[in-house]
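Researcher: I'm preparing a figure for a lab meeting and need a structural model of a single chain. I don't have an experimental structure, so a prediction will have to do for now. The sequence is pasted below. Please return the structure as tokens so I can convert it later.
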Amino acid sequence: MGSLAESHVTSEKHVTTESNVVADQRLTGDRSASHSASERNLMVLYQETEWLMMVIRQVICSYLKQEGHEHHWLEIEPPPLEPGSSQYADCMTEWQLNTFERLALVLAMAPAIRPDALDYFFGLNGMIDRPFTEFGGVTDKAYSGFIPTGQTLNFLLSANNPEWHLCTRSILSPKHRLMAEQVTELLPVEAGLPQWSGVYQLSEHWLHYFITGQRQRPEQSASFPAHLLETPLCWEELVLDYRVMSKIEEIRAWLAHSHILMDEWKLSHKVKPGYRAVFSGPPGTGKTLTAALLGQSTGREVYRVDLSMVVSKYIGETEKNLSRLFDAACYKEWILFFDEGDALFGKRTDATSSNDRHANQLTGYLLQKIEDFPGTVIIATNLKNNMDEAFTRRFQSMVQFTMPGPEERLQLWQNAFRDVCELGESVDLAVIAEKYEMAGGQIINVLRQCALTAIRRGERVVHQDDILQSIRQEFRKDNKLIV
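Model: Understood. Here is the structure written out token by token.
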């Protein structure tokens, strides 16, 4: 087949220093290694589509009773996949897909890797001189190839074995791993059309990973209403009251050792998988930061759920949006973080109207989804009393974040200004920490204002008056005054 790509690095200028030569050689080597890995990945994907082409040919042959119809497509061995040979091979090893599932995955990726593998589906039904309805598929003016649909997959699996229709149904179910992790997608269709007439495709970020080996995080959308929560801070910079910190350490211990507890100690026989916690307390006391640091310190990604994208005015749509999110996170060790959770998880009301009944149904639905979720869920709220008791009694941990005391405030002030500004001789952070009750988020706001003031003066020094003036501005937000 020959090389799939060629890499040439040409120097346009003479390199005059040894360090530049070394850097250029390293860059060339990195590019060559990257291209080489991508070529290997592509070769494996091409072999997969070669197998798909032979399967399609045999399925159609058997279906139309052509010469060789007595053979079955399962007799065609898929290409061997050696672990470590490609990203695709590693995923197949991890996911343990059966032959039907593997065929479905190859069908979804074929238009992007080798469109001509699907050209057999362009055959005409001689009896009516039109394409075979049972092949499914769609065409587009901008694309001359055959685009598979859910019906196309169903034809491959069940055309000659009608009982395997159930296999198609399983693979296209939102609960199936390929669909839940959004590896494959069955695009929605207009009302009144068969669901399986939607385009069946491989998601772009998984295609990118199979070729390059580089993971792309899921983009925030209606099907994934969340975004990655990150922080540049480290665990040692988390400042909390010792009683709060002890509860956070318990959650951290669970995240670090849950596999041992559930598998080796057999706790999975007695409790449901997953962990559920509620963070309550005033704004700025560290709820969001703590969630981000729990993920960072235990090697887990934290996704902050965008409630505005989840809640819909249409009955049933909110449940669908949440279901997509939980399904996508089900096979990953993510932490789902619901900020301002009382908007969704608030107290249920008496069902005096259809809206009230819908809200109560949504509460019950959320309760069940969270209970069944095998990962970690953290719900943050400013008002713990607004939380429905049906939720709170099912949570393993209830953490009440409090306003920091003088000692914690002093540490927050010191951490805030460290490596950012120089403090003038008049600044006494100990006195400020003792006198002014402020949350960590407010202290960061003061830091930002002080830094801007210093920049306008053309210096890096922050004085006591700068800090006090910024504190006044921060307190005015809550209609508070300082002397």
